[in-house]
Structures are given as structure tokens and as C-alpha cells.
Amino acid sequence: MNESSQSSVDDVAAEKRVSWAELFFDLVFVVAVTRVSILIEHDHGWGGLLRALVVFVPIYWMWVGMAIQANRYDTGAVWLRVRMFAVALCGVFMALSLDEAYGRLGSTFALAYWIGRLILAAGFVGTPVKTVLTSTPYGISLLVSGPLLAFGAQRVDVDARTAVWGLAALIDLASPTYLRSRLREMRVDPGHLSERFGLFVLIALGESVVAVGTTTSAEELGVIEGVAIAAAFVLVCGLWWVYFHFAADAVRHSLTTASVQLDIVRLVLSYGHLAFIAAVILVSVGMRESIAHPAAPLSWAFSGLLAGGTALYLASFGFTRWAMFHQISWTRLGAAGAALLVIPIGPHVPALASVSCLAAVLVGLNLGESRIIARRVRLSSD
Predict the structure, then answer these.
(1) 305-353 per-position pLDDT tens digit
(2) What is the dihedral of CA 66, 71, 72, 78, to 10 degrees?
(3) What is the pTM of this model?
(4) What whole-number distance in Å separates Cα of residue 168 and Cα of residue 294?
(5) What end-to-end distance do the CA atoms of the chain give, in Å?
(6) Contact predicate 204/63, CB 8 Å
(7) With 0-12 CB in 10 A as exposed, 13-18 as middle and 19+ as buried, what is 278?
(8) Concatenated DSSP letters for 187-203?
(9) Which pLDDT belongs to residue 280?
(10) pLDDT tens, 186-196?
(11) Helix (H) and strand (E) counts for the chain?
(12) How far is CA 231 from CA 77, 206, 236, in A?
């Protein structure tokens, strides 16, 4: 792509830092994550999960598109900030329409996405329009997935709308792979971009913290509720530790050393982080139910959300580690398997027990990996 070299990251000598404007932009997506979790809480069957994923992908893809552009241009430029806030406004309308995305606000959701991607596509200063439309994911959104969302919004039948929107989501997600040969020379700032995606993981974890802190009122707080809150918070801390203590630096290192950065951006950041974020949202929904009724067994659905979300989160590290280093993360895959074992147990024991088991799995994983790393450091220093 022939972006303006004046403002390209490649010309910036110092390492790029996440700007205040980007952090402000992220606040919109805090709302979106909360709304998606509410959708799942109200409809947590397989169909509800699919519909929630289908509407979350365009929101996530809007955020990814802005993160890539902010990485490649000077975020102190007024024109970029104005464009970022315009995209954020589109995100606001997408988030606000989520509750009725499969109802009367489907067109609002679709149009907000289409306009947002148009604003992003217009940001390629000095690049021929044909190049933007045929050689970037923004062009595919404008020409294919955006129109598909608008077309699907006209389908009254929920299943039909889900199918059309699902196809649009798949096309968007596949666009970096389809365009790999044209984008392979793209260069990004490793520190900045890895931090941006880490911040989205933090947004999702924040939803879990909200679940911990707001599900039980002061009047309802007793001993068992307090123990459940403590166990849930340990679980959230464990999820944070797995990513930010161990994985975040690995993502940055892989971006720095990759011969084709696009492959890390595509596989680890775009795809892998979608799995991380979706998994944490599932955990937050299951956690809210567990804290609300800690003495009662979870239903199969909520047990699946809580333990299955934890397992998905851990298993996703197996994918990202292979994509980065062609190594298998046996510890995390093993912990994912242990988390899956909690699903059939959940409907037969108090919810507190399920949360506590998962918290123990995360604590054990983090302690085990810390010892492995310490042993490697000792051996390398001998």
C-alpha cells in the first residue's frame, strides 16, 4: 500500500506510544462488550451465542481497522483524531443498536458499520481509490461485507438475517488471508500494536471485574457470597496473569522478529485475540450467574459459559503460540482440558465450587509456568 510516508510509522524514530485519543476511543468498545455480554445473558443457547458472535465480529473488526491505522499514522495529527472520533461515533450507534440488532434496529447497526468502514477507507491519504478498494480489508468491507449487512438487515426472519450477517463476518475475517500477497510488505510498530490488542483484552477482563463487583448488593452480601466474590476475583486475576505476565511480551517479540509481520497481525492479533476476547466475555456471563446464586448449581448452559469460556481462553494460547513460534503450549492446553472437566460437574455442585475449581486451575497453571521459566533462567545462567 502506498500510504503517505510523511506520517507513516516507518519514519518515526522513537517507539510509538498509545495515545490518550486511542484510550478515549476504546471507551466506546467498553460499552459494546457490556452489551454483547447482556445479549448472551438473556439468550445463552447455541443460537444466542451464534447471534452474539455474528454481531460482535463487525464491532471488533471496526476496532481492529482503527488500531491498524492509528499504528501506521501519527495519532497526534488532528485529522486522524477527528476520523478516530467519527469511527467511534459509528461504534456508539452499533453498540446502542445491539439489543435490537435482530429486530427494528438492524439497519442502524448495518449502516453504522458501513459508514465507519468508509471513514477508515478514506484515511489512505495519497493512495489511489482502486488500490484501497482492491488491496485492503477496508475495500472488501465497503464493497462486500457492508452491503451484505445492509441486505441482511432487510430480512425479517432472524435465521435469515443471522445467515447473511454471518457470511459478512466470515468475509471480513478472511480478507487479510485473501489479501496476504498484497499486504505482506506492510510494516507495523510492534510495541504499539501489541499494546493496543492487549488493551482490548483488558476491556473484556474489565467486564468480568464489573460482574464481580456489581452482581451482589450490600443487602445480599453474606459469607458464601463473599467467598464466591473472592474466588471469582482470583479467577479473573488468573486470566489476567496468563496473558499479561507471560504472553504479552511474546506477542511483541514475535511481531518484532517476524519476517512477515502480517502473519502475526493476521493470525495472532486479529484471529487469536478475537478468541481471547470472546472467551473472556463468556466467562464474565457465567461468573455473574455464579456470584448471584453461589449456593445453587449452575445450569448446563451457564456451566458451559463459565468453564467452557475459561477452556477456550486457555486453548487459544495453544493456537497463538504455534502461530508465533511453532511450539505447542502443553501447560495451557492441559489446563484447558482441566477446565472442560468442570462443565459436567457444574450442574451437580454449588456454583461456588465451580468457580473455585477454575480459580485453582488458573493458579496452578501460573505457578507451574513460573517455575518452568525460573528453571530455564537458572539453566541458561549456569
Answers:
(1) 999 999 999 999 999 999 999 999 999 999 999 999 999 999 999 999 9
(2) 70
(3) 0.92
(4) 40
(5) 48
(6) no
(7) buried
(8) ---HHHHHHHHHHHHHH
(9) 97
(10) 899 999 999 99
(11) 19, 0
(12) 45, 16, 9
Closest CA to 94 of 56, 132, 130, 127: 56
Three-state DSSP at 3 gives: coil
Residues in the chain: 382
Q: How far apart, in whole angstroms, are the C-alpha atoms of residue 249 and residue 324?
A: 12
What local confidence, expressed as pLDDT, does residue 382 receive? 65
Chain centroid to Cα 348, Å, comes to: 31
Mean pLDDT for 31-47 is 94
Q: The C-alpha cell of 148 is what?
A: 451484505
What are the grid coordinates assigned to 266, written together?
493476521
> Which three cell numbers mark 23?
484510550
* Main-chain dihedrals φ then ψ at residue 297, nearest 5 degrees: -65, 150
Helix (H) / strand (E) containing 27: helix 20-42
